[in-house]
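FORM 12-B: Structure-to-Sequence Request
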């Protein structure tokens, strides 16, 4: 099984770049399933029905999110629709709309995708480790061995711990949220592909997808700033993970950045 995971899509410009590169990338690299983190795909941040439609119609099979998942009120009904492949962190409070995992099926292959959020330097949420244990057990009971986890977290240490915690129990643990791709992609000892952060899909000349001037004012002054998303050349950060479809163990992991 060949899985393409694309890092946080930022703003309409990131959505447009995704549409530009995704069809050919899937074909050239023989991708079975494409998963995209879209929590910043709306202008500003958050996700809107229109950006969900854009990402899915561009070729993604599933959209994961993160701490901004429920920022826009308009998206709640979309999360509640069981037929739309959009998930939010599993360890949000139980009152949150939507689902935290999803099963993708194609040509006799099944892939379970779990969305989790970290707790260090992040908004309050439930224990991601306990949440992972419960849903992995459910997926295993359904005979699903290929499982990918999008761990949306700030602290690199927490991401590494999650990688080792799930090593041998899932096919891949991919980190999102910090928007900077890390050069530590590997296959852990028990067969789980891991990367601390996949990166982002958005404007190259920006600070994490935010207009440089806005981000600079925020960092230098510490005062509230209305963030804007710049136009200009974009880059898509992603990983391609190949697994043994029978065992769920990772065979390879490759990091890419596409302009």
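FORM 12-B RESPONSE
SEQUENCE OUT:
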């Amino acid at each position: 099984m060949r899985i393409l995971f694309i890092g946080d899509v930022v703003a309409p410009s990131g959505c447009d770049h995704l549409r530009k590169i995704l069809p050919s990338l899937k074909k050239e690299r023989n991708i079975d399933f494409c998963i995209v983190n879209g929590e910043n795909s709306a202008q500003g941040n958050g996700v809107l029905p229109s950006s969900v439609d854009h990402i899915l119609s561009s070729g993604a099979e599933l959209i994961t999110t993160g701490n901004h998942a429920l920022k826009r009120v308009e998206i709640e009904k979309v999360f509640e629709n069981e037929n739309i492949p959009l998930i939010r962190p599993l360890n949000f409070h139980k009152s949150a709309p939507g689902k935290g995992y999803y099963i993708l099926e194609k040509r006799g292959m099944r892939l379970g995708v779990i969305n989790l959020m970290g707790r260090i330097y992040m908004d309050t949420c439930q224990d991601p480790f306990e949440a992972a244990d419960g849903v992995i057990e459910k997926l295993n009971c359904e005979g699903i061995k290929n499982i990918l986890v999008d761990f949306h977290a700030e602290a690199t240490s927490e991401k590494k711990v999650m990688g080792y915690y799930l090593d041998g129990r899932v096919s891949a643990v991919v980190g999102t949220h910090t928007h900077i791709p890390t050069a530590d992609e590997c296959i852990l000892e028990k067969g789980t592909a891991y990367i601390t952060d996949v990166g982002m899909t958005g404007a190259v000349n920006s600070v994490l997808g935010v207009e440089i001037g806005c981000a600079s004012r925020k960092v230098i002054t510490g005062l509230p700033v209305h963030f804007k998303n710049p136009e200009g050349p974009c880059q898509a950060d992603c990983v391609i993970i190949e697994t043994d479809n029978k065992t769920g163990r990772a065979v390879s992991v490759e990091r890419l950045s596409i302009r």
